[in-house]
Specification:
With about 450 residues, the protein is α/β, with parallel strands linked by helices. It has three domains: about 180 residues; about 90 residues, Elongation Factor Tu (Ef-tu), domain 3 (Beta Barrel), CATH 2.40.30.10; about 120 residues, Rossmann fold. Helices cover about 45% and strands about 15% of the residues. It is built from twelve helices and twelve strands. A six-stranded antiparallel beta sheet has the order 4-3-6-1-2-5. A six-stranded parallel beta sheet has the order 10-9-8-7-11-12, sandwiched between helices. Helix 1 runs antiparallel to helix 2, helix 2 packs antiparallel against helix 6 and helix 4 packs across helix 5. The longest helix is centred in the middle third of the chain and has 30 residues. It is elongated, with a radius of gyration of 25 Å. The two termini are about 40 Å apart.
């Protein structure tokens, strides 16, 4: 067995080639944002009116570049998500969306305060068309960001929100391009018009790829539900068998987009963790708890139902740390699924490295995969700690929440340099991360999976 005391520290990062890939993407993103300004400043430029005018125009061009970039960030492009993980890219998309909206509002606000006559009348039936297009773009992006941020308080069903989100993004982008070309102050010559026409063409290519080409490939490679199992704790596992190409480049802990009994062109698909390991393929398993949206329907799926899968995505995998001396895994509720997939992989590989798993639930009845996790201790060097907030009478295990004291009791001293993999509700992962840092675990050894993408 590997001696964890003498194993090299395992970072939760990737090989140098992946870091170079990540750096190249960051440079590419910066170049995309800079391109409009480089092109617009070339050749003859209109005379400057004053600083506030030029500054506002610059904010508008920056906002447009950020807005178009969002289609790439959400386009499920593996070459883009690979170095970071799709969950991190989606989180970055959220932050950049707020940044783009802030630039748009500042662009309009500066004109409203210092150059109001240039805005013309606000009545869309009397205003110049290019100015109305700008207001349509601003209104669309404002609604897009607000409905994304407050989808749950607004009680928008997930599939309805996705349709609204896509519609607002298309309307807002087309209106913004029309506004820029219509105003024409910085886009009068052919080179500068070609920039925005090229941006529009690239945006259309991304749109066709994500909404037509990918669904067409899915339609030619369907899956079939072959089992629906009760895993306890309200979780059910759908097992899918491929009827076309099986999943490629699949690593334990990754997720995929799943559409069950719906056409691949529909917007009724959801991201779920693949809860088993590639070594147990080609069938896939998705373990689902009915927590809202469409999940109540999914857990009632009958064997024989057709499904479509798009993936895999994500980087929450033991394969990221092949030199680790062991692993610490911490889960809350249905957050056990990506960790279960990683345990399946270690089990299939007869991996001798020690694993400490802390699994938090409210009650004993909420524990999913109870028997399966217990059985894994026969094949793995697995320390399994169940933590219950409301323990039953006679419970002799850990109680309350996972805190620093419990971690200190359960984690061997040498585990500070092991990867720490966390998945669960955001408040839990935040509290556990703080506790781990307090115990001396470096931040680079802590990896938390984003519990929800939308």
């Amino acid at each position: 067995m590997t001696d964890p005391c003498h194993s090299k520290p395992a970072r939760l990062d990737r090989p140098p080639v992946v870091w170079l890939h990540a750096l190249a993407l960051i440079v590419l993103g910066a170049a995309v944002l800079a391109l409009p300004f480089v092109v617009l400043m070339r050749g003859a430029r209109p005379p400057s009116i004053d600083f506030t005018w030029d500054f506002s125009v610059g904010l508008g061009f920056g906002a447009m570049a950020l807005a178009v970039m969002q289609f790439a960030l959400t386009g499920r492009l593996r070459w883009l998500t690979h170095p970071f993980g799709a969950d991190i890219v989606y989180l970055f998309h959220r932050y950049l969306s707020w940044a783009a909206l802030a630039l748009m509002l500042a662009h309009f606000g500066i004109f409203y305060i210092w150059h109001q006559p240039a805005l013309g009348v606000l009545n869309p039936f009397a205003a110049r068309w290019e100015l109305t297009a700008g207001r349509v773009a601003l209104g669309s992006f404002l609604l897009l960001v607000l409905t994304a941020q407050f989808r749950k308080p607004l009680r928008l069903p997930y599939e309805h929100w996705r349709a609204l989100h896509l519609s607002l993004a298309i309307i807002g982008t087309l209106a913004a391009v029309a506004h820029i070309l219509g105003v024409g102050r910085f886009t009068a010559d052919p080179e500068k018009r070609a920039l925005w026409l090229g941006v529009t063409a690239g945006w259309l290519v991304l749109l066709v790829w994500t909404r037509a080409a990918v669904p067409l490939w899915q339609a030619r490679n369907p899956w079939r539900v072959v089992a629906n199992r009760d895993e306890g704790g309200g979780v059910r596992t759908l097992e899918l068998a491929p009827e076309g190409q099986a999943l490629k480049r699949w690593k334990p802990g990754q997720f995929a987009w799943l559409a069950v009994d719906r056409a691949p062109w529909s917007l009724k698909e959801h991201p779920f963790t693949i809860s088993t390991a590639p070594e147990k393929g080609p069938n896939l398993a998705f373990s689902i708890k009915p927590l809202g949206d469409d999940t109540a329907r999914l857990v009632q799926t009958r064997p024989g139902t057709r499904a479509y899968v798009h993936g895999p995505y994500g980087a929450f995998s033991v394969d990221r740390a092949p030199g680790a001396g062991g692993f610490v895994m911490i889960a809350g509720g249905v957050g056990i699924t990506p960790l279960l997939a990683n345990l399946h992989a270690l089990q299939a590989r007869s991996d001798p490295r020690p694993v400490v798993l802390l699994y938090a639930n409210a009650r004993a009845d909420d524990i999913a995969f109870h028997a399966e996790l217990d059985a894994m201790r026969d094949d793995l060097d697995l320390t399994l700690v169940h933590v219950l907030e409301e323990p039953p009478d006679g419970w002799d295990g850990a109680t309350g929440r996972i805190d620093r004291a419990l971690l200190e009791r359960c984690m061997p001293s040498e585990s500070r340099n092991w990867p720490h993999m966390l998945c669960g509700p955001a408040p839990m992962t935040a509290a556990v991360t703080e506790a781990l840092r307090g115990l001396g675990v470096p931040a680079r050894h802590i990896d938390s999976e984003i519990f929800e993408l939308a």
